[in-house]
Amino acid sequence: MYKLSEKGERIRSMFDEIAPRYDFLNRLLSLGIDRGWRRFAVGQLAVPAGGEVLDIATGTGDVALEIARQTPRDVSIVGADVSREMVEIGRQKVAASPHAGRIIFEISPCEALPFVDNRFNGITIAFGIRNVVDRPQGLAEMHRVLRPGGRVVILEFSTPTFPPFRALYQFYFLKVLPRIAGLFSRQSAYQYLPDSVMEFPSREEFKALMATAGFKNLRHFNLTFGIATVYVGEK
Question: Which residue segment(s) compose the domain that 54 sits in?
Answer without folding.
Answer: 6-159+201-234
